[in-house]
Write a structure and sequence with these properties.
By secondary structure, the protein is mainly alpha-helical. Helices cover about 60% and strands about 5% of the residues. Strands 1-2 form a two-stranded antiparallel sheet.
């Protein structure tokens, strides 16, 4: 009986196996055609890239020859615009001013200036002592 059961399974599985093999075999031919098509396209693109590189090289050579033949054209002084010259000097009528220095005997209040790494500021007399102590107390 086992041989009859195995034979039935073989008979039932044979068409399924045959259909699978035929289906996969057909895909192989199509796949090889696609690969061959892609290889031809890759070869065509490589030849186009090579031709473009040759054209670029020839254009660069032509540009180098053209720039080497005409260096005088680049240094043409007529291309520069005429500019007006402006000279700055102090006016002759103003006399030199002396810096204003407060005398030590003066009763005028002096400005208190407090500074640190962040900047310098001028403070009034009331907060000057407080700021001075805080600044020096650090």
């Amino acid at each position: 009986m086992k041989s009859l059961g195995q034979m039935r399974k073989a008979v039932l599985l044979a068409p399924l196996l045959l259909a699978t093999m035929v289906g996969c075999g057909g895909d192989r031919d199509q796949m090889s055609k696609d690969i061959e098509s892609l290889q031809h396209e890759l070869a065509r693109l490589r030849s186009q890239g090579s031709a473009m590189a040759d054209r670029l090289d020839s254009l660069e050579e032509q540009a180098a020859v053209a720039s080497a033949q005409s260096p005088a054209a680049e240094a043409d002084p007529d291309d520069r615009p005429v500019l007006e010259v402006v000279r700055l000097s102090p006016p002759e009528t103003v006399e030199a001013q002396e810096p204003v220095v407060a005398s030590p005997e003066s009763d005028e209040p002096r400005p208190n200036i407090v500074g640190d790494a962040k900047g310098v500021e001028r403070v009034d007399d009331a907060s000057a002592k407080k700021a001075k102590q805080g600044w020096r107390g650090r």
